[in-house]
Amino acid sequence: MPGAPWPPRRAWIRASRTSPPRQSCRWTTCSRRRTESAARPGLRLPTWCVRSSSTPGCPIFPPRGGPGIAVCRADTCRSPPSKSRRWRSRVPLSCSTCGCTFPDQGGQTMKRMLLPFLILAAVAAPLRAQEFPPPQIRVVVPFTAGGGTDVIMRLVAQHMAESLKTTVIIDNRVGAGGVIGSKHVADQAPDGRTFLAVASAFGVRAAIDRTVPYEVGKDLVGVGQMARSPSFMVVSTQHGFKSLQDLIAHAKKQPQGIHYSSAGVGSTAHLHAAATAHLAGIKAEHVPQRGTPEAVNDAMAGRVLYAFAPGPNAIPLARAGKLQILVTTSPAGANFFPGVPSLAQAGVAGYEGDDWFGVFAPAGTPMAIRERFAAEMQKALALPAVKERLATLGAEPAFMGSAQFEAFAKDYVTMARKLGEAVGIKPQ
Predict the structure, then answer these.
(1) % of the chain residues with pLDDT over 70
(2) Percent of residues, the chain, with pLDDT higher than 90
(3) Within the chain, what is the greatest distance between any pair of CA atoms?
């Protein structure tokens, strides 16, 4: 009330909830304990109270900008002077203490005001996820730069960026045979901004390593397959081998056995090399490397007897005379490097297989985004310039849509697990 003396500050308390209305709340004396008549579940009361004069009013004022509760229960109470500085710094809330009531201007009103905005935000979130392409797309390659996956993805990404009129960044996150980069993508938001480019080594690793912290279809979903490439056995030109049988004869003369290199435990090259040694009956020990380029360098320098590599890493070096290609894992290899025999043609039957290259996305990525990305991939792979470049790398376009590619990847993991056990690669 105007002109009424201001009650002591002890008569107020800050709190976070609005006091529920009450019919009566009379305290006739100051006390450190609330009376039974004032007790109410969920209502906060102070441990003290200051009696006020007989001026009617209701000292129920929260702190600036926030809700509050009625705290001083007395048989009479008073309000601060109207329009005073202290009056303006407080907002009255709905409560009933000594019979007086103020209109509700606190938490409930704020909740009602925010409700439309909360609904709008909930509706807008999935709509934003459908906005594709974003200003920037990041494709994580979990293998070293210069490897087959990296080379093919960069080639396709260049044309996708031009078609989508956006930026496509290749992010090489290397480690643990591709596990680190793959797990990173699995943990990203499914908003169409992050994708994972992998090779068949991704499936082999998932097959033989029980500690892999992701699963195809559960944590990572298929987007599409880009290309396939036969894998080639590479050796140093210093050995002077004329055929695979020359290598086998040399290996069997080594009492301690021989060594082969690959892009890491669980890589496709590891599977190819182990299968060849198993079927040829030679004693061989695996020397894992960080990536395919490092494994090829080991073989080229003679530090290991042989290694397997996809076309993009083997054919250019063979044409330059820096290494020798003895066999390929697929009869199709002769299409890219004329004259090279398959394993079966070289006398080691029972195993063949191509390397594949594809793209995954975090689980939960809308199918519309995955299909749009796959369509742009297919468009890029159909360009004559891309086909010609892939052919020089020993690869060819082999597009596969989102659903089909995901089903293929699941089956490949099962096949690789059985094949790995058959050639002596046990799950770890």
Answers:
(1) 69
(2) 49
(3) 113
